[in-house]
Amino acid sequence: MTHPAFDAAELRTLLDGRWASVRERVRASLRDNDLANADDLDTESHRARTFEQLRLLAKSGVPELGFPVAQGGGGDQGGSVVSLELLCGNLSLMVKAGVQWGLFGGAVVALGTERHHERYLRDIMSAELPGCFAMTETGHGSDVQRLRTTATYDPATREFVVHTPHEAARKEYIGNAARDGRMAAVFAQLIVGGQSHGVHALLVPIRDEAGNACAGVRIEDCGRKAGLNGVDNGRLHFDQVRVPRENLLNRYGDVAEDGTYSSPIDSEGKRFFTMLGTLIRGRISVAGTAGAATKLALEIALRYADARRQFDKPGADEEVVVLDYLAHQRKLLPPLAKSFALHFAQEELVQALDEVQRSGDERTQRELESHAAGLKAVTTWHATHTIQACREACGGAGYISENQLAGLKADTDVFTTFEGDNTVLLQLVAKGLLTNYKDQFDDLGTLGLAKFVADQFVGAVIERSAAHSIVQRIIDASNKDDILDRGWQLKAFEDREEHVLDGLGRRLRKAGKDNAFEVFNSAQDHVLRAARVHIDRIVLEAFVAAVDRCQDPRNAELLDKLCDLYALSTIEEDKAWFLEHERISPRRAKAITRAVNTLCGEIRPHAVDLVEAFGIPRQWLTAPIATGAEEARQEAQIAHDKSNPLP
Amino acid sequence: MTHPAFDAAELRTLLDGRWASVRERVRASLRDNDLANADDLDTESHRARTFEQLRLLAKSGVPELGFPVAQGGGGDQGGSVVSLELLCGNLSLMVKAGVQWGLFGGAVVALGTERHHERYLRDIMSAELPGCFAMTETGHGSDVQRLRTTATYDPATREFVVHTPHEAARKEYIGNAARDGRMAAVFAQLIVGGQSHGVHALLVPIRDEAGNACAGVRIEDCGRKAGLNGVDNGRLHFDQVRVPRENLLNRYGDVAEDGTYSSPIDSEGKRFFTMLGTLIRGRISVAGTAGAATKLALEIALRYADARRQFDKPGADEEVVVLDYLAHQRKLLPPLAKSFALHFAQEELVQALDEVQRSGDERTQRELESHAAGLKAVTTWHATHTIQACREACGGAGYISENQLAGLKADTDVFTTFEGDNTVLLQLVAKGLLTNYKDQFDDLGTLGLAKFVADQFVGAVIERSAAHSIVQRIIDASNKDDILDRGWQLKAFEDREEHVLDGLGRRLRKAGKDNAFEVFNSAQDHVLRAARVHIDRIVLEAFVAAVDRCQDPRNAELLDKLCDLYALSTIEEDKAWFLEHERISPRRAKAITRAVNTLCGEIRPHAVDLVEAFGIPRQWLTAPIATGAEEARQEAQIAHDKSNPLP
Hints:
The structure is a homodimer.
Chain A: H1 8-16, H2 20-32, H3 43-59, H4 77-85, H5 91-111, H6 114-125, E1 131-134, E2 150-154, E3 159-163, E4 171-174, E5 183-192, E6 195-205, E7 217-221, E8 234-238, E9 241-244, E10 254-255, E11 261-262, H7 268-278, H8 280-307, E12 309-312, E13 319-321, H9 326-359, H10 362-393, H11 395-399, H12 405-412, H13 422-435, H14 449-456, H15 468-477, H16 486-508, H17 516-522, H18 524-549, H19 553-573, H20 575-580, H21 586-603, H22 607-612, H23 629-643
Parallel strand pairs in A: 1-5, 2-5
Antiparallel strand pairs in A: 2-3, 3-9, 4-8, 5-6, 7-8, 10-11, 12-13
Helix pairs in contact in A: 3-5, 4-8, 4-9, 5-6, 5-8, 8-9, 8-10, 9-10, 9-18, 9-19, 9-21, 10-12, 10-13, 10-18, 13-18, 15-16, 16-18, 16-19, 18-19, 19-21
């Protein structure tokens, strides 16, 4: 439609990255199938429609991507993450799909063995067997090691008895549970011969073919939620429910017929975190989807801002386009730059997922988990803040459902606390940094951090991202002390991380047996900051590497500016730290604010073309304010004014 | 229920303030009437129920408070604002009531004359005549001077012809329009004898008794919104609709039978802003309600945080109460302190409204408008941020509708952009500060600011709040350079305001005829900052004055700490400015962060009692997580664990 002052096709290629063909396939599939958001329906119809759409999606062949080749899947976990995020215009469907194929299917793949794969995966891929991922309990969400559901082995019948001992142990917020699920991967304390072996997962049928709850299973409906009302979240209670021994997902822990427990991993803590680690894909998908939903929101708000006018322009016979206001640019353009940065960081993360799958290296796996946790936290908060800013930037129009922002806001809101609460996730990131990923999960929960660090921490070591060599080259080549110099920016991010981490290490080393909680807790804001600045750096380095990959000089120039805007607006947000630690002078601090303003002005003419380059499927862009209604009204007004000037 | 370590009754008295009896009356009325939130209904039923509730409320006698005594009202605008905010648990009803009595009724009272009062007010008070406030148009929301609806006088029939010339001129987002309204106060360009006299309001019937649209009136439904779905927002189109001459609300501009226009105010701009100024109550009510909704959200999140536990406490046989985590305190306690600060600032604002009504002094009126605009912006943003933090602090439970936060978030979201877009409002505040309220509205829109300031601005003058003498006394008595010294805090806020304003004045003085927009626009972030820091000071001074009024020494001590927390967390948020301008040293900056952490710990044990002191009607507290469900589950778990220890 527009004629960007850059090579839009090349930028799209760069953004589409390694899974470009998957993206194109999903875009095509969305053109062929009616997967439109059904938020306007009542709860039951919305759920029914979402379930129908899930089956439509199953037929498209796309969901199979992430499943093993042996059962007819594509064996491409990266592709499966990328395909899911393209559902950003119908987030109920995305979450329903994520539950069915990512969480439920993913658990069977990762925690089960061939007997489960052969028996269930085809029906899971086709959605003939709708399933649940029953981990969270009402009483324990973040601290999943303390789940209270039990699975007790009965050698007499060779069955497990799954039981909910009290209300706090009921399974809570379980997607697919209230209406459609027929089976659940239930996480429970495994008890064999009177001994507990920690949390394991096993498959428990919850509904028969007719849709009735199985004997001993009680299902409650979580009812209306802030958003995602096409997903049937429910609660599961088990009253001594018996399942065959074979239903244990036994890759990391098995029970022989006679009741002998065995596991390839001796430590209970390590075993549990290894199991959790295999489920990392869900968290990466949430980050991807949050990022995609943010892009869609930005596209709506930027298109409207580029058309909407308000207040006469002094000395001109027209009103000012609202995106020409600095305040409006400030609301939308630094988030646009951050969306680019996070996009490239997400691409690196998905590649790392793909590589870890092949290599199986433990340290790389821990690093992947850390990056996934951190990016999930940063990207979902970015979504919450940015979609809110987009809503406000569209005024009353942003509040009307037909303009989509209301739904995007409500649906993505839970992302900051599901698949890991962001605050808890950032603590995991900090823990990894402090211990250099050395067996830190060995029988230690999040709060074991303080004690552990006291023993182990020796000093901050900056762990380099995948972009290592490029970043090092730029830093080495840089000798300018200029805020627009990439080397200076990279060094500023790196130096901040090192300093924050080092200070944190020193604080936590004071922790002993008796004061561990107090020392840890009084440093909690410092812990969270360490994780955030680490992720900031990882994200900047991913952006820098992407600029380096860019072929077209015009694109490189524009991406360069966006990268400056990301780097400098990130520093500006945390300016207090840089000043407090005398990393920048007051004079430079003011120069950074001026530079952010200037960069906003330079990017402004390209804003709409840039956001379009993300290639959000056109099917999702339905908001009247973003698809011509505002322009048509202004034209009518101008035509009317010409023939009927106000007296 | 709990036993606060302070005099809760006295604190309630202090918080209830001058309109304590009105508050008690409304609380009683809420006990007697079923005004429960009906968010779970479908749109039509929700609207119907909200309309029924409006009629119930009419019978309670409370809405009459704000109307003139001559027509049976209470003549108490302050009481009417205070009573409206207590509807914070049913925001659809609050907005419906605000439209009916505040906006529609308020327009008839303030812009009409006795003939309108006598004819309509009784039916408005009783809700027999449901009405709309039809100002905003699709094309012009913030810039209401440029509305395009016309009202042309036809001397032949002594009627006005109301007309929507094109789609951008249709009335948009009009509450009460889609379903219930029978009449609208329509704002239109008044054209008499071929000459335009600017925007005036007139009463236009839109539906007959049977509910059918009147001839020439076309009504559209805005459909679903992010929230407030009990309010029937709609769009109004007028096709040459004729109303009698007497329907002009003629207090500030009248048309004689022969078509002679007259007004007590010569300048068209001043006339318009004077009319708008009389409608200030709506804006003040939005701030009050946003504040009250925030308190309710904080009460839910704090009660849950005070009960909920997660992660084992090292060395103890229990899990940690989540409000004991520093990160959780940081999320909820500075907002609690700010809610106290804004509460007292709002109380001062309502008193000022009451006084201006009596005195009619123009400078005081302008100051009131400025404070109302600024507090509305700051309080509604505080609501958006805090309710979001509360939602996240409650994890998945915060996302389930029955726990109320979803609804509070969705319903209050529009507050930041309705009754004046916050960004535009802050510019009005800055304008007032720069011109010392000297006729600044005389034929100048918001963007006239730059030009005007270039002519008029001479230097920043700190305009003192109502708390003047107390603040001066504290500043004079202070000689300590200590961050916990109130005098130091007050001086820090005042100094920041003066410096920001002074710098802004100097920047804007560079504006000439040709570059006015560019100069203004490039300083827009500075303009917004000037307004914010001004309001920060007004709010701190109101809090300081309230601490001074406090009688009980224990209460004074606790409020003192809360006031410290408000002051220091506000400085902490803007630490970069204080460092950049060398107002604080890096060492002091770190001390402020430590002090905020310490204050959080000191306030934490009283957090629930403090939030309860606001006296949010108990009817509104229905969230299971805040009313005992979590405690009951934990007790059941503990009881179970005792008799069945995990093997």
